[in-house]
Amino acid sequence: MDDKDFKRVLEDGEKLLAYFESDLTRDGRFGCSYLLVTDKRAVVCDADLKVEVSVNLKDIRSVSVKDYIGNAELMVTLKDESVVILTRFSRALRKRFGDASRLLENLAFLRRVRREQVYEEEEVTAKSGTLRSILRFVLPYKWVLAAGMVAGVCGIFLGLLPPYFMKMLIDDVILGRKEELLAQVILAIIATQATSSLLGVIRSYSLSYVSLKAMYSIRIHLFKHIMRFQPSILDRYEAGRLISRITDDVGRVNWFLSWGLEQLLRSSISLISVSAMILLLEPRLSLIALIPMPILGLGVFLFRRKARWVYHYEWRRWADVSALLVDVIPGFPTVKAYSMEDHEAKKLKLKLSDVIKASLRSTKLSLQFFPMLGFVISAGTAIIWWLGGLEVLNGTLTLGTLSAFISYVSQFYGPIWTLVSMVEPMKRSSTAAERIYNLMRMRPEIRDTEDSVDLKIKGRITFENVSFGYLPYTYVLKNISFDIKPGEKIGIVGPTGSGKTTLAKLILRFYDVDEGRILIDGVDIRRIKLRSLRKQIGLVSQEPRLFNDTIANNIRYGKPDASLDEIIAAAKIAAAHDFILQKPLCYDTPCGESGSRLSGGERQRVAIARTVISDPQILVLDEATSSVDTITEDAIKKSLDEIAKGRTTIIIAHRLSTVKDADRLIVIDKGRLVEMGTHEELLRKGGLYAKLWNTQFLEQPAEAKV
Amino acid sequence: MTSIREFVKTSLRFADPRKVRFEYDRFHDSLNFYVDGMVYKNVEPVKPFPLSAPYYVILRVESGKDLCVIRDIRGLDESSRKALEYVLDRKYFIPVIRRVLDITYTGEFFVCKVETDKGVRTFKLRGRRRSVFKMDDKIVLFDMDENIYLIESYEKLDPKSKEELMKLL
């Protein structure tokens, strides 16, 4: 269906702005229906484009989405208070119809009309590009790979000689009594085997080298690719699942690159050359050798059809285990504190049981096919022995020819069996490759565009009617507008869950706003290069993450070329210097995984040092001192005041004493900006801020605290 | 706007090693520091980066406040350097491993026998993740008693030592 098809639904002069395809019909059945949004109407039609509902935009009072179990509805309330259900859709399309909802809302309220780019979920399906995408990592090593393959192919041809030598040995040397040939034949056999071994070494080393190098490249590429995403990727993929892609899945592809590819080629060439040999040697018997072929072909076909989903299922179970471990092991202290060891063990047992079930399923699948196919091959060989043996007894075939033929037949079935056996690991590898490919195919939603600019930030931050929600139509921030001047110190306060931290994340463009815009020095942040933006904004979050490196290197993370003096100065600003010098190796002390060897307050202070050393133009402190005592917080504040002079500073805090000296305070409640002013102004106003202040200071009269 | 570089100038005092002097007072077991015609008695030298920049020293006074920084103590005159290093060597006992003689694994911990610049020593390590820390080519080992050993350059170790270390790394 495209824009042209929808034209017959439109009225004269009506312009189609966007269309949204649903996966449910209005009467709640799986099927296709369309919501068309034009410059005049919202039109809903079924799969055959029969109009079911039509609503004039000018009649709409409000637009809403109701989220139910398993499905949701997009509905509009008209000016006459009547409610019209426009469309139903499964929860998989929440994002899509969230966009539709906003578009309708914008149109109905004559706001900016912006045709939203509908974000499509990446389908986990195999594409023809899977193999190509993996093979391109092998290309840089093509000559080494070629050397390995040439060695392998030469090995195949050499492998054709020994049976022929055996025929000579039996028919000419032993039965024909040509003793003078004995030494020559034996020497030829030894030389052939020695060369074969050498070629085998070259082949194995080359292929291992290529596969290891390719694995390295894929892992680095995948890691860099993941790093291009915003933190929101973790909303969709848990960390454990991403780790599983880089480690387990890439490891599984290794087999294909190291052996699968070569075996495929080797076995095919071997099959062709041995077929030629047996045909030349004994054409009648060679026809018998072909009997098992159709059965093998059918078996492989059936196996491949079933195997794909079985393996996908099995690896998703493994990914579940990785995700659980990555979640639970860093949270070990919490597990212990709540004595939930048994609970977590139970969860792991369940996941591992699922793995066992899934693995057994794939094992059963293999066992349904491969032993039977192996039997078919053995039966073929037995028939040749039977018929060939009769011919030798009848004197129509020499014993040497039969021995050589049987030897070639085993070489003929060898590659066939290899190819058949390869189907299973090949399937495992290709499934893993699909998962890697799907991840590689994904493009970050937030990225630089061609017209993105580098900006030397001065520090003005403007929010213009900003609305944002993590879920498609659940707003966390709604219609927020404010302007922060360069060098201003702003405190952002509000009850828990009011959207303060989200606001900080939006400034760093971890997410894009749904409506409105954020400007820095008058430039929409969507037009500023991400690197340029983030390099000039320093964020210290409530639970900063340190890396498993020394304290010095963790501070240096904010400025890789920082001098030792700068590291110490930054630590002094963060009131971290003294505690660091108490550590056994001072600044060279390892922080442990995620900073586990430091206390929460110490981690926060190192994180502050890491941020201030980067000399950001805009400093965002999100509950940055929540884990330190008030005396230390005071010390940090004094030093920060010094360094923050002339920089725009945003301090998000629950503890109101932390922000009361700010130039202005912004009070957020339930995602809306409810108050703005200085500490004194807000206390006088007696609104939410005054209430929060009084609550924190034991309900004493506000005036007494001013 | 104060940049971090400017903050370095205001928050740290630097002493030129060529213009200062140290004297070790054996009687009081203290280190005296002479700078700009002043004497600071019983100063405490601290190596903030004992492994990555061992010649960078901060001097602290008895109150625990930083007095000044000497960026490279190798610029001191010989007697001053001797006096300072005498105190520092006592404070930072980090034997440098020259050769790894033997490493065995008991199932619970690793037992390492090494030859260091301070002599031969046998110690126990609990496990790789907690006890071994790599800093570029340096390797730091923390034994079960929280003693610290340093391998200054893994690459420069002899092949036998490297082979032994493979059991641990």
Structure report:
The complex is a heterodimer of chains A (706) and B (169). Chain A contains 23 helices and 17 strands. Chain A is 54% helix and 15% strand. In chain A, the strands form four sheets. A six-stranded mixed beta sheet of chain A has the order 13-14-15-10-16-17, with helices on both faces. Among the domains of chain A are: 3-108, Pleckstrin-homology domain (PH domain)/Phosphotyrosine-binding domain (PTB) (PH-domain like, Roll), CATH 2.30.29; 129-441, ABC transporter transmembrane region fold. Chain A has helices at residues 3-6, 94-108, 129-135, 142-159, 161-175, 180-227, 233-236, 239-281, 283-289, 293-328, 332-337, 341-394, 399-441, 500-507, 530-535, 551-556, 564-573, 577-582, 600-612, 630-644, 679-685, 688-696, 702-705, and strands spanning 16-24, 30-38, 41-46, 51-56, 60-67, 71-78, 83-90, 461-468, 477-484, 489-493, 515-520, 523-524, 537-540, 618-622, 648-652, 664-669, 672-677. The longest helix of chain A is centred in the middle third of the chain and has 54 residues, at 341-394. By secondary structure, chain A is an alpha+beta fold. Chain B is of the alpha+beta class. Chain B folds into two domains: 12-91; 97-165, no CATH class. Chain B has helices at 4-11, 78-91, 128-131, 159-165, and strands spanning 20-25, 30-35, 38-40, 44-46, 57-60, 66-70, 97-105, 110-116, 119-125, 132-135, 138-142, 148-151. Chain B has a three-stranded antiparallel beta sheet. Chain B has a three-stranded antiparallel beta sheet with strand order 4-5-6, covered by helices on one side. A three-stranded antiparallel beta sheet of chain B has the order 7-8-9. In chain B, strand 2 (30-35) and strand 3 form a beta hairpin. Chain B starts with a helix and ends with a helix. The mean pLDDT of chain B is 90. The chains are: A alpha+beta (706), B alpha+beta (169). The interface between A and B is medium-sized, with 32 and 30 residues.
